Amino acid sequence: MSRLSLQMGWRLLRRELRAGELTVLLLALLVAVTAMSSVAFFSDRIEQALTRQASQLLAADLVSNGNRPPPEAWRQQAAQHGLQQAETATFPSMVFAREQAVLATLKAVTAGYPLRGEVQLRTQQGLKEGRLAPAPGELWADTRLLQKLGLRLGDSVRLGNVSLCLSAELLREPDGAMDLYNFIPRALFNHADLAATGLVQDGSRVRYRLMVAGDAASVAGYRQWLAPQLDRRTRLEDVEEARPEVKSALERARRFLGLTALLSVLLSAAAVALAVRRYLARHWQSVAVMRALGQTGGEVALVWGSLFLWLALVAGVLGTVAGYGVQAGLLRLAQQWLGAGLPAPVLAAWLSGPLSALILLAGFALPPLLALRRIPAVAVLRADMPTSSRSLLAPLLAIVALLGLAAWQVGDSTLALWLLGGLVGFLLAVGLLAWGVVRLLRRVPLSGAVGWRHGAANLARRPWLAVIQIAALSVSLMALLTLTVVRDDLIGAWQKSLPADAPDSFLINLQAPQQATLDTLFAKVGRNAPQAAPMMRARLLMINERAVKGSNYVDERAQRLAEHEFNLSWRAAPPPGNGFAAGKWWPADSTQPAFSVEQGLAETLGIRMGDVLAFDIAGKRWQAPVTSLRKVAWDSFQPNFFVIAPQGWMGGESASYITSYRAPDRDFNNRLVAALPNVTVIDISVIVREVKAVIGRLALAVETMFSLALAAGVLVLWAALAATRDERQFDVALLRALGASRQQVRAVILAELAWLGGLTGLLAGIGAMAIGSLVAVQLFNLPLAPNLWLPLLGALCGGAVVGLAGWPLLRKITRTPPTDILRNG
Amino acid sequence: MILRADALARQVDYHGQTLTILHQASLSVAAGESVAIVGASGSGKSTLLAILAGLDPASSGEVWLDGQALSALDEDGRALLRRDRVGFVFQNFQLMPQFTALENVMLPLELAGRSDARAAASAMLQRVGLGHRLDHYPRHLSGGEQQRVALARAFVVRPTLLFADEPTGNLDPATGRQVIELLFQLNAEAGTALVLVTHDTALASRCAAVYRLNDGRLQREAT
């Protein structure tokens, strides 16, 4: 590109920007760049954080993670390999202080913890950072625990049977900071105090980790020795597979945000295409003049090409700055899980914005730009724009550009294709629906006020433009309605579906002899104590002598169930509230081996009546045929079990007990835990509140991205309104000549906006309603109760958005003087 | 007098210079009378028409339409007057492309808030011979048919005064003649006064009076 054309392009850009000829185009590019770069920054920084902190996230180089203490031989081998060692035991339990009890995740750590990464503390001497572990008799609690119990450093805190001194506030622990569902408070104490607490008993949910660190060769050697020793309850974690749940959650978040960014880009692309068409339709005469003055077709294309290049740069730089801001906001929402001090984004993330502006323009502006070359000088003498033959180049380039963007955003070209296909399909479906409605609208006999019919006719006059506008706006509006109204509806419906006397507390880790204490506590408040059910951790080994492996199943849930342990119980009488899908319950005194299996589990794992199942429970093998399939109401807030065995057969085994109840008064749980220090009480209302807060923050992040998509939708509206400006001026001049008052003219234009906005919002509302009902039925198993206000609310929102965005653009047109009708050819 | 113009002048500022488009033009049209205004392109015909119809204000002088001084009315007042008393026929037909023939004819009735708009418009289209094309869009009608729809739209409000701006300018001679016949017939039936702007002297000679506009100056020609 020659210097001259660059200079001319720059001069042209400044003039056109001042004249407002490029406003919509610039804004559309800005939105696209902002969306792309914010997601690029966001995912880049998270990925960097994950990579850099991988070994810190593990707090070691290699960890064996199981539900039993690691055998002594493993420690000896580690020592022989010259590795550093530390151990942790993590479990949920109640923490007491100031006559209150709060559920927390407790971690007992040995000296030497953490082997990698650092702990950050606030002690009475100030901030401390390093490889630190609490001394025996000490406890470090995180901020949430301090707040919930109103604790101050130096206070005494009780864990089970021991009292510990709260010596520090735990600000960061390397292997505990990034759990997305980590809304339960955490505390660290010394491993030496673990036994004395009495909290760890048979059937307790404890994760034992043996951590090692050292030079790579020693770690590899140890790993080689250890791997064959592992049973199925223990797994190895290393830097590569550190925190897979965090990785997959963030990966999902990244893809989802990428998808919304893609939606913004797609909508912006439509706005760009409309705006470029409009721009060139208004400027082809200048091109003809330049051609008449002796410029070659190539030179003309270069001048306008450089104009668009400059435009891409301006939009790229401004949009990248805006994108950085949006990303900073997103990260603030996720800070609780990511911690502060994320690494700065890499160069590629900075380039993503300007590059996407370039790709968009190349895809949507280049084809019409190249057509400029073919405008002949003689066109100067004509009144109409010469029509260039429509080439396949334009749509092809556009599709290639979008695909490139999508693949880059998602980082996986197959997935990108699916996502893009899904998005385009969705937009097409909405567009088709809009097309039908617009056509229908034209057939509805509308009498009365001239404005409404005129507005409807105006929409139907340019159906494809109306469809583009409606599709562009309704998709983002639907997403926002779903995220706000439908989300609240669902939570509300779920809460309403619970009976008023539904249990609000779960009690776990109860031991068999403690049922008497429980009875006494309830008797004191004049109520019958709930009967606790035994609970054992069981692993399904075989179905009909065939080994059960995760790899046997395609379904993700089936794989998980096959690989992990689940809860098993024994009973004499059938559990209240359970129905039977097949078979029948055993006699109360039966000592025969038998299993009763929950219907859903049976379906997932392919278990049928009469199949012989073998379970491993605490190292012992239990084998029996399936004699019944049960239907379980999981949302009953009663302890429910996948698999139950006859009491007379399994009843002698050691187990921990579980029950649920509605707390008679607010202080009851504190009294209960004080009397039974080893049990854990899970207050459901607290958890529901925390989950709601987490969902709220996540939704806000997604809403931010959808707001960008909405902005892109508004730009499509603007571009379409701008493209029809001349026709509208003609309409208004004619109406005025025929004697329409200003008010009537305004009514006609507002009616069109109202139809457009109303239809947009109606479709969005119906879509959100459908999504809500689908989610209610499919995910929450709630009765289908569509919110019938949604279409109305949608129509109002749509009308407001379109009215507020469109009216400023059209207001000037209402002042078109009627005399224009005589000049207008 | 249904229309009286007295000493109309129109000046525009162009780069600091004042250009006079219309000099002291006066004319009068009696009820039911037909008047032609002829002149070459650029002689100011359209400007005069715009001022007479109250589409554009004059720089000086006065227009009385059905006894109302236009300068005393604001834009909406003039629109109201046009709506109730004036019909228009344009060279380019100026039909709304998004409306059917019927809807185009209904438009002025609806603007006036008439509840019988559909029936009245339908009857008027029958009268101009388009009863079978009520639901057709302008793009599906020939030039002659479009101009007949425009005539129906102009006469459906029973105007006291009709302005026609080169009504045959975009039609072939044969179709043009048919449209003009229809125009004069409707005019006679409704007793409407007619102001016809044209450069076709033969057409102009069918009117009771002919005014010639020459370089912004209006003169009545002897008949």
From TrEMBL, chain A:
- Highest taxon above the source species: Bacteria
What subcellular compartments does it reside in?
A: Cell membrane
Q: How does it sit in the membrane?
A: Multi-pass membrane protein
Domain ABC3 transporter permease C-terminal, residue spans? 705-818
Record keywords, A-Z = Cell membrane, Membrane, Transmembrane, Transmembrane helix
TM segments?
256-280, 301-326, 346-371, 392-410, 416-438, 463-486, 705-724, 745-776, 788-810
Principal cellular location given in the protein's record:
membrane
Q: Which InterPro entries match?
A: ABC3_permease_C (IPR003838), Membrane_comp_ABC_pdt (IPR038766)
| Name recorded for this polypeptide | ABC transporter permease
- Give the originating organism: Vogesella fluminis
